[in-house]
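Prompt: May I have another protein with tokenized structure?
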Amino acid sequence: MSSSLSDDWDVIVIGSGIGGLVTASQLAAKGARTLVLERYLIPGGSGGSFERAGYTFDVGASMIFGFGDKGHTNLLTRALADVGEHCETVPDPAQLAYHLPGGLNVAVDRDYGSFVARLTGLFPHEAKGIRAFYDTCWQVFNCLDAMPLLSLEDPAYLAKVFFRAPLACLGLARWLPVNVGDVARAHIKDQQLLRFIDMECFCWSVMPADLTPMINAGMVFSDRHAGGINYPKGGVGVIARRLVAGLERHGGAIRYKARVTRVLLAGDGASARAVGVELASGEQIRAKRVVSNATRWDTFGGLVDAALTPKAESTWRRRYKPSPSFLSLHLGVEASVIPEGFHCHHLLLEDWAEMEGEQGVVFVSIPTLLDSSLAPAGRHIVHTFTPSDIQAWKELSPAAYKAKKAADAARLIQRLEAIIPGLGAAIRHQEIGTPRTHRRFLGRMGGSYGPIPALRLPGLLPMPFNRTGLQNLYCVGDSCFPGQGLNAVAFSGFACAHRIGADLGLNPWALPR
């Protein structure tokens, strides 16, 4: 893999997050010579898993969409099947249990009718509005589910999909510029219920309803009842490992401990084009196309010299800002501390005013309730995390950093005892991660979860697609349409692979069935 003046690879993908792996495996299946370069020891990024003391911990959340078996929105199922792979999954009977201010406790059942009935029981005066709002989300979902989700940058694809499903295309176009808050207020007046819908959005977008695109909400609020929440047996990291196996089966390759420091460019100004990458070791590898699965902040001004940043990227940075990172605790606990019949996923907030604040909302997942093999006998995993900004952790001395980790972790555990009494005394193993941890191991600016609007925007319209202003350089992942979440970055990976496949003349004429 030494440097060469000729193209060594058709495509190089920088980073092995789920978006990058879907891109790479899809391209390999099309016949492209594809190489993934990963800076760390394992694939998956925030969709990976790691092992400690007999526990298999998920790096990020374990509330997984995209493992349904019908329609077109089951993107993880499709991505694996396309390269001859499959993940055995465990269905979760509920998406999430909310524990909110004022004693508002709501569990989102897998069955849509049961969820609507449960919420209507709490807000009987809003029965009509509840049904109208969530039924509107189904309209969006049904449009998405009616068509194969590939690159919106490919006119040939758009023409074919419009011919197959014209009404779905028109319906989807209607919702592209719309945010959830506008739809919610059109049907609902109760302020506490509107706050609940804010939290329904925040639990996966880290944004309130006014800033959350309706397209994303339509997918999440409906797919949790259609395909459902399904946990991969063996941990979330199995998804990445299976995608790597599919990549290699189709002639692709992945290299670990291969940190890319620079995208190699040929030409100047508007004629500049990506021709390969340079590693921290100084090794240069050439390719016809380069894909960055890093954030757009890390790509432009990091991998690409700031002076060559396209104007469109500067515009994007004015519209979007990095979301906070997380303080995360991976706990091994005595199984007896988890109440009988407890849900796998929970969200805790004590004060509505703190929803967007530093360490305001607390997320909890207990994946061993779905797959007991992830922990030693008699133990459960409690993975809890709360938004935390890198600014709160910068410029601390080693002693001050250690002290803050311990104090913040203790405070988080104390808050969790409101829903898991006796948690602190039941802990037998503890790993603490901070925004600095996420920045170091995931290679993301500030450890950010992804971009969020810096101002109110028209839905998903301003979100960029995969091509960039530099020829032969593409981006994939949560900095691209449609945004954050494993299913969303899988969409981005399908779209990026399709766009590159069109550019390299590799795509089949017919759409997927």
